[in-house]
Amino acid sequence: MKSSTKTAALSSYVNTAIRDYMKNHDESVDFPQEIWEVMTTDLDIFSPILSEDDQALASDFISSIRIISNEFPALSTILLTQGCYGVYPILKFGTGQQKECYLDKLVKGTCKAGLGFSESKNLNSLADLETYAIKTETGWQLSGEKAKVSNSSIADVLLVLAKVRETGKPDSYGFFIVETNASGVLIGEQIEKQGLLGLPLSSVTLDKVNLPETALLGGVLAGNKQFNNIIKNMQLGLSAVALGVAEGAFHKGLEFARVKRGFGKRLMDVELHQYKFADLYNKICAADAYFSSYPNQIEEDSKFVARIKLYMTKVALEVTDEILRLIGPLQKFDHVNIKRYFKDAEIIENYGRSGNSIRKEIAERWLKE
Fold it and tell me: A single GO molecular function, which one (predicted)?
């Protein structure tokens, strides 16, 4: 199927089936299994990732994530987790055997993936990791706890980042492919959150999990390089989700404002509202232009994607907040839940990497004397 045809089919599905689904499941925390199956089979959402051999997720996949987040941001993050934490790392870094074992199933969605790197304390560097891998006669043994792992409760396989300590050698780091049904893997209870409802989030405990030699991603201890690449792509994907949230909230607010109400006027007939919507539209256009510049910047500036993510989430928060102010008390009449978009934007700001950590990184250049 051609890219333009797939985009049209996806847009149609989002604007019909997903929109209808959200009317009845707006506050649901259930994993959207039926929609997942349509996305992975009928719409083949992950196949574009296979088509580009570079340092970034395929642009067609990023565009799809953005379109979906107009209506269902949580679904976008579920798909992004699978694409960025499952399909892409195996494709980019996996051995031939690992690709043969997992790649096709990940693309088809019959194998779900998550990635474990966050721990109970903030990771300022990989040196802070407290999940350890020990070399054994038959492979590796993992022990530790990952505090928050997206998709973990529905995942078949996890990529787990661990510190490797060997006598007489400096610490090294690696990602290990861990099947969730392995002995010693314990998935915690669902972690409650205010936004991105439907995205599974749990802790994962690894209690002396024995793995074969072939479980090391790529067969090499290159966790630092792999982690930086994966997180860069996750931030790029989250930027697309945040921009989609802003667009979705804006269009929902605009639709609402253009309907004539019982008092005989539309909100859009009020001049002040016209100015407000015009300002929001310009803000989204500026954000779109900034976001669209990433293909020319991502290779030269490794921190560029972090700045994009910071700005896109800021725009998403500002747009959703302003739409809430404009139509807030009245939205109940059309069952338009703009507050959900705002809560989703709040979660996205701190997903993967917090907004303040990015701000601190930007400000470091001005602290040097």
Answer: acyl-CoA dehydrogenase activity
Rounded CA separation 167/160 (Å): 22
Asked if 158 and 152 touch (Cβ cutoff 8 Å), the reply is yes
229 and 215 in a single domain? The answer is no
What DSSP string runs through 224-273? HHHHHHHHHHHHHHHHHHHHHHHHHHHHHHHHHHTS--TTS--GGGSHHH
N-to-C CA span, the chain? 56
pTM: 0.93
Token pair listed for 231: 């997180």
- Residue 51 is classified by DSSP as G
Name the residue type at position 49.
I
Last residue in a domain, options 108, 133, 154? 108
User: Could you report the per-residue pLDDT of 350-359, keeping only the tens digit for each?
Assistant: 887 778 888 8
Distance (Å, rounded) from C-alpha 269 to C-alpha 85?
47
Indicate if 40 and 67 belong to the same structural domain.
Answer: yes
